[in-house]
Predict the structure of DUF4440 domain-containing protein.
Amino acid sequence: MTDEQEIRTLIQRWVEAVHTGDLDTVLADHALDIVMFDVPPPYDGVRGLEAYRETWPGFFEWQKSGASFALESLEVTAGADVAFAFGLLRCGMPDDNPELRLRLTIGLQKVSGRWTVTHEHHSFPHDDAPASEIVAVLDRWSADTATGDLDALMEPIADDVVSYEIDGNYTGKSAVREVCAAGLASSPGPITFTIPDPTIESAGNLAVAWSVDHITADNTETTSRATRVFRRTNSGWQLIHQHLSYPAT
């Protein structure tokens, strides 16, 4: 077996052990002074095998909820006693963004004839796209309101949505659909719905948007405060919660 093959086998064994929660195998072939740059803090890295050990139990518990950890690509380059490998893994829940991959770089050193991991770097790419994608959902709601297209309005709404509306609280997509249908039918003329300058914050597969909504019906404009929470799924961003209100007078 070549050095490249040995390293590939070592990493594949490590990936499988992470997925099954086999801590002893995860720790095997790692140096006592390993340095890991991981997705969560600390920002200066996890240093030493004992600190490395402590990072895994919480991750294993998360995986039990149905998450995957699977190698999709791996490239290995080996010298006489130093090597590195890089690859992409699928790491997440089944309904996570299917394009998202965990990036992995591993540094190795041959010690007493055995390849040993001295450095790991795990990361996800920083994604600025959610803000523009959420704006696209909000703009689409504006357009669909103008045309009175109820089916289109409901597409980005999750089945388990919880909506705190002006006149009450509603749970489930069908209940929110009735509210939207009543709103569209409330005016004999056109209705406009706009969300100027929303503020959007996102992390991973969740995003929060808050804004002051403008609604015009029967030539009367009203404004309401809105907070909306979105979850990214395989079919795109979906609204899972919204809270609408007027200030008390």
About this structure: Helices lie at 3-20, 23-27, 49-54, 56-63, 129-147, 150-154, 173-185. DSSP finds seven helices and 13 strands in the chain. The mean pLDDT is 92. The first helix runs from residue 3 to 20.
